[in-house]
Design goal:
By secondary structure, the chain is an alpha/beta fold. It is elongated, with a radius of gyration of 23 Å. It has 2 domains: about 200 residues, FAD/NAD(P)-binding domain (3-Layer(bba) Sandwich), CATH 3.50.50.60; about 120 residues, FAD/NAD(P)-binding domain, CATH 3.50.50. Bound molecules: flavin-adenine dinucleotide.
Length: about 350
């Protein structure tokens, strides 16, 4: 384990959309940032769960793909030269004389005057089906819990398992790209938007996809991580083999606060309670923004997270620049400068 020791003004835990915007807001107030994320990439849920879906409620963008929003947020943050530490989880936060020291799972230690926790739902990961030999197929990408690029699935035979919005949305998105799609669900009713359920039924009625219902996953056939068949079984144990290049199980996410639960902050049902006007937690100098925080009337929307990033940055300013009076300025008058 390496033992780097670094120093900055603000450590941002989480590089989802809200953490990325916090880099910009801190930068505009002349505060340097280091950003840490467990995942190997930035963008949080937008990148991990729905990169190719359009978002319709980002101000100024009638429609923007989740992946494009993340690119734009990174571009907006870039002038402030944030340092990213990806692929490592923040495991501890300790109070020091004039701030805090965070430590990551890779042994990197960073001291800062303030901390912004933008950790979304905490450490999140997919619920994996209990199938023998699963890991071998996960390593090659034959079994995957997210769709990075739709083009990777062109002309492939795909099995999508699950009955919620994600499963159904990806069936609708990949139809016409994949050569064949089978949908495995253990009951006839899908738990998704009614319009999506109607579209799914139409695709099945038109013979464009196969609904394999009521069935559940049983096992995988293939060799050296190359999938050839997904075996499913019904409630009586009758089995069916489905030819497949890829299996995409969408059984929801397991969300855990992880180490954050042990940092002594006031929690409210797995969320961090904050003062709404500043997003400060019960610990002075530690702020929480985006999906992870809670206050009365909280909306888990990217738009709300953006506003919280601005409020937290303004509240942090006096901690980083105690001797400088704060003059509120619009970005139009001060421009974007380090
Ligand atoms: P996240 O995006 O969850 O990012 C948090 C990051 O923190 C993650 O990358 C995680 O790895 C990291 N992290 C957690 N714990 C640690 C730790 N200890 N150390 C290091 N890193 C850590 N919102 C909208 O406004 N409009 C929409 O249309 C919309 N559509 C959606 C569609 C879907 C399918 C889903 C799942 C969500 C949708 N949302 C939408 C919700 C939106 O994605 C979230 O509100 C948003 O991602 C929250 O951003 P965040 O930065 O707070 O957290």
């Amino acid at each position: 384990m390496t033992q780097e020791s670094l120093k900055t003004d603000v450590v941002i835990i989480g590089s989802g959309p809200v953490g990325l915007f916090a880099i910009f807001e801190c930068g505009m107030l002349k505060m340097k940032t280091h950003v840490i994320d467990t995942l190997e990439f930035t963008g949080g849920q937008c990148t991990a769960l729905y990169p190719e879906k359009p978002i319709y409620d980002i101000a100024g963008y009638p429609s923007i793909l989740a992946s494009e929003l993340i690119e734009k947020l990174e571009e907006q943050a870039k002038p402030f030269e944030p340092t990213y530490h990806l692929g490592q989880q923040v495991i501890s936060v300790q109070k020091t004389g004039d701030g805090f020291e965070v430590e990551t799972s890779k042994g990197v230690k960073i001291s800062a005057k303030a901390i912004i926790i933008a950790a979304g739902c905490g450490a999140f990961g997919p619920n994996r089906p209990p199938l023998e030999g699963l890991e071998e197929y996960e390593k090659t990408g034959a079994v995957s819990y997210m769709v990075g690029k739709k083009e990777d699935y062109r002309d492939k035979k795909i099995v999508i398992a699950g009955g919620g919005d994600s499963a159904v949305d990806w069936v609708l998105s990949l139809e016409g790209i994949a050569s064949h799609i089978s949908v495995i669900h253990r009951r006839p009713k899908f738990r998704c938007a009614p319009e999506s359920a109607d579209q799914l039924k139409k695709l099945a009625d038109d013979g464009k996809i196969d609904l394999v219902i009521p069935f559940q996953l049983d096992s995988l056939n293939g060799e050296n991580g190359k999938l050839s068949q997904v075996v499913v079984k019904d409630l009586d144990g009758n089995k069916k083999e489905i030819d497949a290049d890829h299996l995409l199980p969408f059984y929801g996410l397991s969300m855990e606060l992880g180490p954050i639960a042990n940092w002594g902050l006031n929690l409210d049902k797995n969320h961090i309670a904050v003062t709404q006007s500043t997003c400060e937690t019960s610990e002075k100098g530690i702020f929480a923004i985006g999906d992870i925080n809670h206050y009365e009337g909280k909306l888990k929307l990217i738009a709300c997270g953006f506003s919280e990033a601005a409020m937290a940055a303004h509240a942090i300013y006096p901690l980083v620049h105690p001797d400088e009076a704060f003059h509120f300025e619009y970005s139009t008058s001060k421009g974007v400068s380090k």
